[in-house]
Structure formats: structure tokens, C-alpha cells
What does this fold into?
Amino acid sequence: MYRSRPRSRAATHCLIRPLAFAILASIVAAPALAQQAPTYSLHVLLKPTPEEPDAQAFVQTFGASRALREDLGDPLSVLPSISLPQLPPELAGALDPESSDAQLRRWVTLTYNAATAKSAADVKQVLRETKLFDVIDEEPAYSFSYAVNDELYTTTNPNTNKRQWALSALRLPQAFDWTRGRVLIGAVDGGVPGFFNENGTPVSGYPTHPDIEPNVRRHLSYTMPKTNTDPAYGCDTPAKLGYGYSSFLTTFGHGTHVSGIMAALANNSAAGGSGTLGVSGSCPTCSFIMMQASPTESGCVTAGATFAAHNGASVLNFSLGRSAPSCASPTGGIYLSCAAIDDLSKRDVALIAAAGNSRVNQVQFPASDDRVIGVGAIDDQKRLWNEANAFTYPHEGTAAGSTRCPGATLDEGCGSNFGFGLDLVAPGAQIVSTITSNYIPFGNVPPCAVDSALNSQGYGPCTGTSMASPYVAGIAGLIRSVNPLLSWQDTKIALAAGATITPGYTATQMGAGYPNAETAVKKALGVVGGKTVFNRLTPLFSQVDCDPSRFTCTEKLSAGQGTASWLFTSSPQTAIAAAKAELYYVEDMSVVIGGSAPPNLAGTRQSVAYFPSYRLGSGIGKSVSDAYAFRNGVLGPDANGGGMQPGASAYVFTGNRDPRTGNEVAPNGTSYLVPLVRMSSKCSNFRKHTYVVDQGDTAGSPGTRQFFEQSAVVACDASTNVTGYNTDVVEGYIFRAHAPNGSGELPQPPGTQKLFRHYNPTTKAWILVLESELGLEAPGGLLAGYEAPSTAIYGDPLLGYVYPNVDSDEDGLVDGFELTVGTDPDTDDSDCDGQLDKAEFPLGALPVSDPADGPNCAVRALSILLNDDE
It folds into this structure.
């Protein structure tokens, strides 16, 4: 048992696990009403010990030891700061105790009753005397980084308060000719319109915003209401997005405006009407998640960022911050945030943050951190935003040359911060985007636009570095869409490629300058034969759920044994989360603290590790480690070393342009390539996946996305009666196999294989198989039990044509990739310049040089290159 420390001398602790989990439930649980009292929280980092390896073990010990409760100052609750599942043995055994992953698993949050407990300063001293913790941290409040102005938006008025001038300034329309985005991007912010009750039913009078909602993935987005408002939920126990809305009436406007800048859908017709709605996001066809968190709630911003990474976000925006040093000298309560930043950066999540609005030579945290891309703001004249400047079209109610800066103190709202840690600038003054008016009818004043006829349509201008960073985040989404294997560092380099510092300013004031989105996207695509390539290929990672309670990865799959879920993804971030058993997972804290589960808890309850499918046998999911290895040891050794790094049977295109012509649409009006869409079942235990292609078929017809969304087939285990699937993300593009509505099979491009969607009726699991893998479905084979489903019910199982994982010249670039970009698949040095193709034009990094410009030999490249003036 834990023994209390003697009061007259230093503490001596001997911590053990509890004998019975029931003790934990009875002791740790705090009455719901107690949570409604004023509280404060402290975050503590456990010292690494064999007895207490992580926060979960410590929480269990706390539940069994009254002495420990007293020595911790009698907290209301003791919970893990970040809800993390147990790692699979392959990763847990090699985990460095000092790694960010290991540290995140040792962070514990202690919550105290502010009315009855000692002060935070006194409790910190009590905790220091226990000698249990490396760090004792009171994470301070963050603040959003916007400033108020008014006026609204019309598409014809030259007034910068009333039009999206930022799109042209960043050359986003030109970038959209290359890609409009497809990956999962997200924000930790104040939320988006659209509220739901405990049963998931929309609340009458609170509609969603039509410009944002099409791209919002609500099943991957979470709400973390303020603890005092709804004790059932919190940072560690998030609700589904849109629940607990009363906690966020003062912050919805900020989150709505940021969301529109990032991911408002372009050229979408209003429901039941004609024409288009008001604005376009900077990544207008990206999937978008919102981690709704109050910046003043301790730990919620960090928890939201972690949950976003666990759901596969490749880009994450923070339009918020606080005055603090960087993690290089982590003082002032940012230790927990720094551990999360380190973990997310090692997963190559591109982190973007606002520099701050105090017009001082100090970038706020987290933008100041080296692993975060810090963004300042410019106005329509491309000057560093400064409210003392004269605006071409002043804010309504002010005169040209007047200032809203409150004197010499330079408080919030004066202008963009600058200095060390500033990487880029982007439009941030008088930025038109989506607002909350007409979507949150009471208790919420839109933050930036009031008293205008267009206000009720849901658009208006805001000003601040909060508006600048989501533009950069959206461009990062475009970059990641065309080249998803890039490191976050390469993403930053691409953003800076072609960036411009306005004459008269310095790098201290503007970093690399304001991005050129078109140049950034082209940098990520690369040049072959002197011309920017139209498209790229990327591996479709293949992973299989290997829950040891059902079977092991070394066993063959059979109809009776089966597997619960397969995952095929082009996103390294999604693959990492799946391998770590984090994908969709949210711990049911009712199990920890007692009581019933909250009715609208986000995510899934069961943590399931996804293993590389090649571990089932060599006939599936071949390794891609020669061309791409997951960085920073996040998945252990490479495939040949027996780690968790997935392989791929097939490669998919990253964009929708035909690699041979650059066209999106053929003369007959149909597309050459069709999006391969991942969908996940609407389960609360764990989610299975299916895959569809959006190719113009009649909506709702068998096999379409709308068909699976409304499917009556039970997709979860036998104990639940949940049906249907949600749309997750576009994993890539594949060659079209059918004309719309199945009117004939189109010719198969040379070197490709057919890609099928097959089904196991026993396990209710879907799988993607190549035509070369169909023999594995025979009795006794690796994929026994899978078969082509009924075409009448599920549509044609043939989804399209893909390039297989075949590398004829063994240079690490598959034949299809080389055919796509224009190098020679039969030789490892296409231009005979002494540099290997994979070194000049790597799969998982920015292109280094042109692999087809050498004068020493004829390059047998396809004529698929852009005919422009570059």
C-alpha cells in the first residue's frame, strides 16, 4: 500500500497498483455538483519509475490510497492530462522514457476546489515535497488573436471590408488550378455553428453554416465544454462537436471566421437556390475538423491538438496564443504544451500559429516555437498590419489615419507582432469570411461585424493575426494534398518558396514574407524535363486491425476468424495514429471515475492497433521502406526490422489532373481520375472502413458515398444496432474504370491493375484488393472469407485502376510514379548525370533537382509535362 509521508521529514513514497478497480471507482469519483464549484487545475509530470510507468497507473494508485490523496492536497480529481491508449508491445518495448510520447503518457491533471483547497501556490509547494514529479505546471489561459472591425462582404464592392482581397494577394486562384485540397486539416478554436442534443439530434433554431458545413467532419471533431458548465465533459472527456454549445457563445464567432478562411467550400450553390455562396477557403475541398476548446480552460488547447493528431490531421492551426518564451526555455506554464508540440512535430503535423496583435517585437507562444510556423499579418497594401496606418478603406466609424491603439501601452488590437520566431506573414486586416449571425440567434455578438444588411447572411470582415495564420494553414493543406509524405520542415520550405517581403520591411518584421500559393504547390510537385509535373503518386498504406483478443497477426484470416477493420490511407499521420491504437479513440472516463458514460461522448471506446498488412504474409501490403520511412522513430524500426511501419500494395494519385495531358475533364465531360473516398462506420466501440469513388453516379445508387452514408447494414458489432458510414477524407485519385452510372468499362491504362472493393459477410469488413491479390481470397488463403459483394446491392466492386507497388529498376520509385512524373522506370538514372532519380526526385521529400535534364543520354520520359513558360 501507499504510505503517507511523515509530516516532520521528507516524503518517502512506495507506490503500487490498486488491488481492485472497484476501489478506484468509489474513491476517485467526485460528485457532479462538486465539479460545478470554482476549480483550478495543475498539470504534473510524473518521474519515470518502473512502479508507476504512466498516468493511468498513477490514477489507479491514487484511487487505492487515501494517504496519497492527502499528500496531494486532497484534489477533487486525478486524471491523465491526455487520454492515450496503451501502445502495442512492438512500440511500447522500444519507447524512450524521455521521448515526447512517453512524457505525454506521464502527465497527470489534478483538479482542486478553489473554495476549499489551499491556493495554487501553496498546493504546488505541497506537491514539490512529494518528490513524485519532474514538473508542476499551472497552464495559463491563451487568448484568441483577432481585433474588431465592422462592415460586411459583397463580391463587387472594391472596399476591402467587403471583398476577399486576400485570395489574389496570395495567388490562391492560380494554386487552385493545380489542387483545391483533399487532406484532413484542422483548428483548435471556438467552434462552428450547428448544435445537437444528447441524442445527436440538431437543435431547432441553430443551423449549420452552408459555406463551412460541407467540409466539416463532425464525427472527427470534438467539443470540450467548460467543466463548470457541464461536468460530464472536459478536456480529457470531449463531447461530439456541437454539444454543450452554451459554453462557447462568446467564442463561436472566432472559430467560425477562422474555419471559413481555411475550408469554406468554393462555388457551392445555396440549398434550394441558385448561384454561389459568399467566400472560398484557402483549402476549399479539404476535409476539416474543429477541436472546440475554450482558450481559458487549462489544458484544453493541448488536449484538442492531441486529439486532432489522433484523428489524422496533417495540418493544425492555432489562431491563439499567450506571452511566453518558446519551448527552448519552457517557463510560465507551457511544459505540457511543449510535450504535445514535440510529439506532433515528430509525426510531421504542420503546426501554424498566430504571432499576436500587440505590435511588439515578441512573437507569442506557440508561434514562437521553432517547430511551429509563426504567422504575422499584413493589410491590403501589403504593409505589416498596424492600426496607426491609414487604410485605403477605413474601418467603419473611423477616419483614415486614425488609430485604435490604446495609447503607448500597445495593448491588444494595435497591430501584428514580429521578431524572432516569425516565419511568414499573410493577409490579416479586413478579412472577409464566415460569421455566426443568423446561426447563433441569442447570446452571441459576432466578433467583427454588426448592424449590416448582409450580417444575417453570415459573412463579415475581421482583423488580426488570427485571420493570417489560417490562410497559411490552408496553403499548407494544398501542399500536403499534392505531396502528403513531406516533413513539416519541407512544408515550411515550400511555403517560403516564392514568398515576398514588401519593400521597406525586413525579415525581422515579415519573416520570409507573404506566400505565393501557386509557387508553393509547384515546389511540392516538382519539375521534370524543365516543366512542372501535373501529378504525383503516393503509397496507399495498408494496415489491418489485429486485436489480440480475437487473433494475432501471424494467423491467416478466415471467414470464421476474420478481422474487424482494414485501413488504407495515404496519410502518414493517420497511419501513425492507427499503429499507436489512437485512431478515433477517446477514453470513457466513466470507467475511471465511476458512473455512467456521458450520452454524447466523442470518438470510440475501444483502442485497436492497426498492424502492417504485410505481417499477414508477403502477398499483400509490400514494404515501401526503400522509398519512404516514417521519421523520428515514431513507428519503430523500418519494415525490414519488424516495426509497425505499413507498406502498400497500390499507389494513388495526389491530384485530379490527368498525368498525360494535365486536364481535369475529358472531351466527353467525364473526369480522367476519380477521388477515392475513405468512410468510417458510425460506431461507438470502434470503426470499420469502406471506400467509394465519386464518379458522377446518381446520388444514393448502390456503391456511392450517399448509399453508404444511408446504409441500413449493421456495421458495428452484434451488441449495437448502428448503421451507415461517415465520409472521412479523399485518400487520393485513381483512374476511372466506368462511365457515370456504370455504362461500360473504360480501357485500362498500361501498367495498372484493377482495384476492387470486397466484403467479408461474416465480419462485416471491407477491403481493397488488387487483381493480383484475388487468389489470396481462396479457401485457406490470407484473405479467405472476402469476396465480391452483390452488385445489385453494393454496386460494381471494380473501383478503378491503380499502379501497383512494382519497381523494375529497384531505385525506390515504383514504375507508376516514374511514368507519372516522366522519368524512366527501367533505369535508376534517367538522364545519366550520375545522380539517381530517387535522389533528385524523392518520393517523401521536396524535389531536389530535375531528374531529366542531363545532357549525357536520351531520357525515355513520357510527354506528360506542362507546356508553360517556366
The radius of gyration is 27 Å. The chain has a mean pLDDT of 80. DSSP finds 22 helices and 28 strands in the chain.
